[in-house]
């Protein structure tokens, strides 16, 4: 899914905005807008704002924007210690509500699930996702339910994922061969992980169609565009904080995204055209060799009342490419860093792999279901470093009461799952990476227990859990089984987090791989 939170301001919001319009024009517009905004706030305050959650006092016009810390997950957690598990922030003309406890998360995501099932779509994300027609940003309703059904019950079902395992296996083996060629020298673990996951995702999307050199050049094209797009999605945007000014696009972010989106659209059109010409006339084979084939098949056989359109297909492809690659690769990099930081965890994981797989064999996906300790490593990684520390913000369709406070219609709701996962009243020694806490535990990824819900919960829970679990476990198992990993002499693992569209390591993990399998031919 497209993982986008378009609020990652720097320590001084106003000083870090990059605007194409002149400063004087912006100041004039903001000053004019301030009068209307301030009057609106005054009127609103007289209509019962005392029932709103507590929160820090803001400044006229910009509210709390100037005081935001770039690491929003830790900043929100600090505010919760002062103001409680539900609090408010005024972000320009947008009211944000931050929830930081399991009980309140349950109220939002379960008790009032339908009310909070919508999104407040940022301006840049709307451009990137064909007007918000993807599964991440689409409003709750018949179209969203149709997309959810296509993704969860069909495209990302276990049977469909099984059918494209060969494509995942090929890309992982290619990476193993590359790392083996660099044995003894340092490599950027995060970079190689991202490239692998991106190749895995694009191979599953149209791996039965694109072959040879074209597939490699397409991967390079995607890497450039994804980097530019995620940067725009992570930029603070006046159009989101002050919707009345959106028409001016003061920072030019919509214009820039409008320049990137056609590049994706052209790639998707090219792949769709190639796919439509790929099947021989009269071919009655029902086997789907990749996701694009599957989606086109669903489109042709779709529901008349709520059809899957070509635009929907391209929006889903966008979700898979942008969301699927960044989230999984960052989570795997965190896992490797944590395991390297605790040699006893590395040893236990490799002992389990040696017992289940053996040193004379390569890891296969069929092995991962027997690797209980590896599963525990994944769960512990997502506890300490949830890929979406604030989930994707929800937007209530009507005013309701949460925790005894009024949550207005149209406000932006952040669920600080990162804070819940590190709550000392829930977790023993919460800052310690300890996979053993998940051995024989009840916790899973279903979102039914609000002490642990790294993929969210309720109707808008992540649609790609099954694929994310397979990709994470298969690739992590392969890296730990095929190689020993060490840091350059004198260096220590840096686990400092950086908040952005998704959570990532602040400094890339650079390590030296050493082959550990008995047969060198396995690396070819």
Describe it.
With 524 residues, this protein is mainly α. It has a single domain, classed as Cytochrome p450 (Orthogonal Bundle), CATH 1.10.630.10. It is built from 17 helices and 10 strands. α8 crosses α9 (212-233). The two termini are 33 Å apart. Mean pLDDT is 87; it is low at 1-21 and 45-49. Pfam families: p450.
Strand percentage lies at 5-15%
Mean pLDDT: 87
Indicate the overall shape. Answer: globular
Order of strands, widest sheet:
1-2-6
Number of helical stretches of at least 4 residues: 17
- The fourth-level CATH homologous superfamily is Cytochrome P450
Q: What is the H/E order?
A: HHEEHHHHHEHHHHHHHHEEEHHEEEE
CATH architecture: Orthogonal Bundle
Number of strands: 10
Summarize the structure.
The chain is mainly alpha-helical. The protein has helices at 23-45, 72-83, 102-111, 123-128, 142-155, 158-163, 165-181, 189-206, 212-233, 238-241, 253-276, 291-300, 310-341, 343-356, 372-384, 417-421, 465-482; strands at residues 86-91, 94-99, 187-188, 400-402, 405-407, 412-415, 483-486, 497-498, 504-505, 510-515.
Which properties best describe this structure?
524 residues; mainly alpha; Cytochrome p450; 3-stranded mixed sheet; 3-stranded antiparallel sheet; 10 strands; disordered N terminus
Task: Describe the SSE topology.
Layout lengths: L22 H23 L26 H12 L2 E6 L2 E6 L2 H10 L11 H6 L13 H14 L2 H6 L1 H17 L5 E2 H18 L5 H22 L4 H4 L11 H24 L14 H10 L9 H32 L1 H14 L15 H13 L15 E3 L2 E3 L4 E4 L1 H5 L43 H18 E4 L10 E2 L5 E2 L4 E6 L9
Parallel strand pairs: 2-6
Antiparallel strand pairs: 1-2, 3-10, 4-5, 7-10, 8-9
Helix pairs in contact: 7-8, 8-9, 8-13, 9-11, 13-15, 13-17
